[in-house]
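User: Please predict the structure of the protein below. I'd like the answer in C-alpha cell form so I can feed it into my own downstream comparison script.

Assistant: Understood. Taking the following sequence of 272 residues as input:
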Amino acid sequence: MRTHIVSGWLLGLGVLGFALPSWAASLEVPWADKEHRFGVEAEYAHLFGRDLKAPTGETDELTRGDASHAVFSFSFEDWLVPYGKIGAVDLKERMTNTNIVGLGRRNIDLKYDWGISWGGGVAGSARPISDQPWVVGYDIQYLRSEHDLNRVVHSGVVATARSGKLGFQEWHGGAWVGWTFDLPTMVNVQPKGLVYVGGRYSDVKAKLKSLQYTVSDPSAGLGIVSVTGNSNANDKVGLIIGARLGGGPYSVRLEGRLIDETAATAEVSYRF
C-alpha cells in the first residue's frame, strides 16, 4: 500500500462565516436602543462559494457552507455593542488540479462534519447629523471552529479510512452606511426600517490536522493520501448589502455578501 502526500498549501475550510463564515461571518448590525440593552439573535448563514489561496498551482474552493449561531449582545451605547456568538458550521470543499506526490494532478471533494463555532466582537452605529435619517456603522468580529473529516471523493472514487481535523479561524473588520425610515403604524407600534451597504476586510486562516484517507486510484492502485498545509482566503475585500425591519423589541434582517464570497444571512432578534 502506497502513501501519497498532497503538496503545497491546501485548505479545508469552515463563514465563514458571515458567516464563514466564513463561511465568512455576516456583518453584525445591532438594533440597539437605551430601553432594550440586552439582545438575543438567531442567525443562519449559507455560503454559495468562496475561492481559497493555493500558491502552488491548485484551484481550491469552498463550494458550500451552512452556519447557525445564537448571538448575545449588550448595548452600552448605540455606538458600542459588544457581543458573543456560539453555534455550529458544516462545509464542503473542492480541490481541483491538486498535485499529489506519486499520482500527479487530481481533483478532490471533501465534506466536513458540523463543528462547534464560537467567537464575538464589537459593533455599533451613529447618526452623523442627529436629525437626518442616514447612519453609519462598523463591526469587528472573530470566529473559530474545528471540524472532523466526513467524506472524500478522490477523482470520482469514494475514499475510506478517513481521519483528521480542520481548524479554522476568521476575523473581519467592516463599515457600512445606511438609511432609516418609518413604516405604517401597526397595533400601536411604529415599525422602522434600515437599508445599508458597506464593505469589509475578511482574513481567513485554516490548518489541516493530519488529514488522511485511503483510496483506490485508477493509476496507482490502493494508497493512503495525506493532506497537509495551511491556507487562507484568496479574496479578502468584499461588498455587503442588507436590510433590517423591526417593531418594538423585535426585528428581522437579511444580508448578502459579494466579491470575497457569495453568501447570504437571515436573522431574527429580540431586545429586552
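That's the full C-alpha cell string. The chain has one domain: 2-271.
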